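Priority: medium. Attachment 1 of 2:
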């Protein structure tokens, strides 16, 4: 199992990155539970791939040359959600390596805006595959796919047909976007959870997971 999926290693990595961002020296930033070789690989990877990693840092990452800490889920529910997803990803790695690898590839190929994972209609087969894997990780009630299309797109999109296809291909919850003037055409994927009987989107959970997998797997395997 990739070390980054282990909760104790994850916590040590986050503490290390937070100290680096606070301009601590490498020696002072190292945290218990993260050996020096892996800590150095993570730092070097972020230093050399900073341009590629900018989207995971949020707006501050575009202005702060010392950015190391990615966007982090903040509420208690989101943190619990993140830890559960890390655990399930570790189990998936051990039981279905093909699904795990597909999940990583799809995440890395997606774009993220305001915590939502976005994929164009041309990647619909990837969206179906992602959903099939997602419901192995967490119950379908924790996932949502919206199908959205701008009113000015040249090629008309049958949103109802897209929803019907999604429901046929996967068990994930899907719905037509309720936004009157969507500025995006494609699929919007997000995590959801209930607090006080109200549904909330888990801000940046998938984005955070993607950062961990990119940095953790690439850096640890160099």
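Attachment 2 of 2:
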């Amino acid at each position: 199992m990739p070390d980054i999926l282990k909760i104790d290693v994850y916590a040590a990595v986050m503490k290390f990155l937070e100290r680096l961002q606070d301009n601590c020296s490498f020696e002072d930033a190292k945290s218990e539970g993260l050996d020096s070789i892996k800590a150095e690989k993570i730092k070097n990877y972020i230093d050399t791939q900073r341009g590629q990693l900018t989207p995971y840092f949020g707006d501050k990452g575009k202005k702060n040359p010392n950015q190391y800490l990615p966007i982090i889920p903040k509420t208690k529910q989101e943190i619990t959600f993140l830890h559960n997803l890390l655990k399930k990803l570790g189990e998936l790695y051990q039981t279905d390596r093909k699904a795990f690898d597909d999940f990583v590839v799809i995440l890395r190929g997606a774009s993220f805006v305001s915590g939502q994972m976005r994929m164009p209609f041309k990647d619909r087969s990837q969206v179906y595959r992602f959903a099939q894997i997602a419901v192995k990780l967490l119950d379908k009630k924790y996932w949502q796919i919206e199908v959205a299309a701008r009113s000015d797109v040249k090629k008309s999109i049958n949103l109802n047909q897209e929803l019907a296809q999604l429901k046929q291909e996967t068990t994930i919850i899907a719905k037509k976007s309720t936004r009157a003037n969507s500025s995006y055409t494609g699929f919007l994927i997000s995590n959801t959870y209930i607090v006080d009987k109200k549904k909330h989107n888990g801000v940046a959970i998938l984005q955070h997971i993607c950062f961990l997998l990119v940095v953790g797997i690439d850096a640890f395997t160099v």
